[in-house]
Write a structure and sequence with these properties.
By secondary structure, the chain is an alpha+beta fold. 60% of the residues lie in helices and 15% in strands.
Length: 224
């Protein structure tokens, strides 16, 4: 939201004003776009509050030029610390493979985090199965609805990210080196896994909801 700083960056790195507007719009849909001096990428990062089982979202924008990567986050955080650590440790691959490879490394962290969050919520969703039999309580319905809401929220952001990464993997650009195309195809496999996991857990929740209502219906009939 620092307009002066953003304008200075746009001038120094010759960033198109339309790209700048997208960077400064955290509600922008995930997309990839080539412009005269580079590639613009935007994607949503998800954060999980494991105590409250609630998700929040943050926008990440990347501008990949010939030999520079500029990243924009809404807030500082440690999610990219593994990437920074690889650079600090002078890992040759990340230091010598270009700004496009560095962009891949950051996107890979974002997508891996989708898979991680799916796993955490998925374990909790599957653990609800133990409470489905016998005498399901009202709290169980609240838990199912909470997880259903969060999984829908996650799916809402993973689906457009999947579309963006597909377009990125197919992109032929001077700013993506031939030897790095394979990494963006790997990224495509990972986002497909994240998408399939979220769909699978949503289906489990709908099944649990049906079982819950059936159990309650049976219980009411036995009481009448």
């Amino acid at each position: 939201d620092n307009a002066d700083l953003m304008e200075n960056l746009a001038t120094v790195f010759k960033i198109d004003q339309n790209i700048l507007s997208d960077v400064m719009n955290p509600a922008a849909r995930p997309k990839v776009q080539e412009f005269d001096n580079g590639i613009f990428i935007t994607i949503k990062m998800l954060h999980l509050d494991e105590l409250a089982d609630t998700l929040s979202v943050e926008n990440l924008s990347l501008i990949v030029t010939e030999n520079t990567l500029i990243s924009f986050q809404e807030q500082s955080g440690l999610i990219f610390e593994p990437v920074r650590e690889r650079i600090r440790k002078h890992k040759n691959k990340i230091r010598t493979s270009g700004s496009d490879y560095l962009a891949f490394a950051m996107l890979d962290v974002v997508v891996d985090n989708y898979i991680y969050i799916n796993g955490i919520l998925g374990d909790k969703i599957e653990s609800l199965e133990d409470d489905m039999t016998g005498n399901p309580k009202k709290e169980l319905l609240e838990s199912i609805n909470t997880y259903k809401r969060e999984m829908n929220f996650m799916r809402k952001h993973i689906k457009p990210a999947k579309e963006m990464i597909l377009n990125l993997a197919k992109m032929e650009s001077e700013f993506i080196h031939d030897e790095n195309h394979i990494h963006f195809r790997e990224l495509q496999d990972n986002i497909n896994e994240a998408s399939e996991l979220s769909d699978s857990y949503r289906e489990i929740l709908y099944d649990q909801l049906n079982i819950y209502h059936s159990s309650m219906s049976t219980k009411l009939k036995s009481m009448s």
